[in-house]
Structures are given as C-alpha cells and as structure tokens.
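Feature request disguised as a bug: please show the residue count (329) next to Putative dehydrogenase in the output. Example input:
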Amino acid sequence: MQKTRWAILGPGAIAESFAKWLPSSEHGELRAIASRDPERAAVFAARYGAEISGTYAEILARDDVDAVYVATVHTTHAELAIAALEAGKAVLCEKPLAPSAAETERVLAAAERAGLPVVEAYKHRFSPFARAVDRRLEASQPATPLKVRTQFGFTAGSADGRLFDPELAGGAIFDVGGYPVSFAVAAAASAGIALEHLNLTQAHGRVEAGVDVYSSAQLEAEGFTAYVDCSIDTQLSKRADIVGEGGWITLESAYGDRDLSPQTLDHFHDGQRDTIEVDQVHPFAEEADALSRALRDGRLESSAMPWEQTRTVARLLDAWHATVLAGAN
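Example output, currently without the count:
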C-alpha cells in the first residue's frame, strides 16, 4: 500500500503526540505542518522532520498531501475539516469532530460530497482493547438490561486558556465528556441497542464563568442505561464497568494514556473470572492507519468509529451541555 502523506493542521500539544507516533504507523508519513502562524509551523516542521510548512490555505492547496490531522481548538474543527475535504484531502479530526451536532452534520455532508473519509479521533476506539470489549458484548447478546458506568476527569490547574473559555467551546463536556459518552455509545451498539433510541434522561453539573467544570449524566434506551461523569477540575479514574444479567466487564483503565492503549480487562461470566490481556498499541498511529485504510478502500468511515456513533455522541454531548448550562442559569 502506498504511504499516506499527512499534514498536521494546528501545531499544538496534541499534535506533538500525533507527530511523535505517526512514524510508528504502517501506512503514514509526515509531509507538512500548517498553522495560522507560518513561523510556528516552520519550527514544528523542523522538530519532527516535515519537509513543508505554511498557512492552512497553502498546505491544503498542495497536491502532495493526501490526508490531514485537524488538531486545532474545537471551534475551528468543522471549518478546517470542510476546507480540507473541499481541497481533496481525507480528514482525521481530533475529538470532538465539532462542538455541535449541526456542525458535525455539515462535516459529514462535505465528506459525502467529496467522496473522502472523515474519522473522529476518539483514541480509545482504535485498539485491540476496544475490539476485545466489543466482541464480548456482541457474543453475549441479548444481554439486556445492560448498565454502563464510566468517567474521565483531570485537574486542569490554571483557569487560563481554551478549557475555561466558553467562546472556544471550553469545559469538561466537550473536552473529555466525549470519552465516557463514546464508550457508552460503543457498548450500546455492540449490545445491539438502536442508537437512535439512546437519549439523555438526566444531567447536572457545576458551571463556573460560563464553563462546565464537572458534570454527570444518565443516558438511556430500552434495556440500556449509562452513567457518565467528566471533569476539568477534579481528578477522576478512567475506570469503566459494564454490567449485564449474565456477568460484567471491568476495565480499570478504559482509556489508557496518551501514548499507549489499555491492556487488561476483567470479564466475569458463568461463575468465573477471566482476566484478558491484549496487545498495547500507540493510539495515534492506529488512528492514522484507520484513515489510511478507509482512503485506500474507498470508504467514507472507519469501523472503529463509524459515523453513526459520531452522530450519536455529538447529539448526546449537545443535549448534556445544554442541560447543564441551562441548569446554571
């Protein structure tokens, strides 16, 4: 398979990880760096061995770039993803694809028009670990009623920067709430739950200066309930529990860390406990390869994070965010 020639849009902290691990991918090579600030792009390009740097428009106009990784602030994801698609580039976009369901639909519509793939980069979905969980849920159908509990939170420290800026879609829900929600959505899908019936039924949180800093929500469909929490001012575990009538799955680290996917899960079923260990991978390299395979095969989406799940996550995050902010007013 021919190498996918990548450009990174937005040389920030998360882009550092992508650039670091892209050489570990099977099908990708770093070609270019783009930024609003050409000098910043040039410094980043020199650090990671990219041959080309420039503004967003300059890099998107190039014929020697096949795909882009959008790593800018949330509020510019949709704009840059659509511009890249219209320029003939496949798109891997850092989560969330956009900070609203309406903008998410705009991006997916642009991908359909261009006939090019868009993949939302929820990194925990691109690993043998995620596939191991999915397979166990698929094999246990029908397993309803099914309950999921999971959370993701950290202490951001300083209240400066994008996380605490409502104009940049700051707050816990759009930054890390998508992790537990996407986990719950994937679990529901693997258990055979129709995602169009999965809805937010309860939500509350703590809002400071127009930004949600700690939030909890309940998601429900017939035979399925998920309890999710997120925070940017409190350290929370990355644990997830999936409980059904015939047993349960416990994941002490459902999301791994920035550089490595999770490895171990405990599966309790039929009166016995199995501890399963799977291969650890570098999530950023796996995300890149997932997009490369979709591009090679002429598919618009990746099975690791299909559009139905992207749409469902966006809809639920929208509802969660709106409910929590309304409750604060």
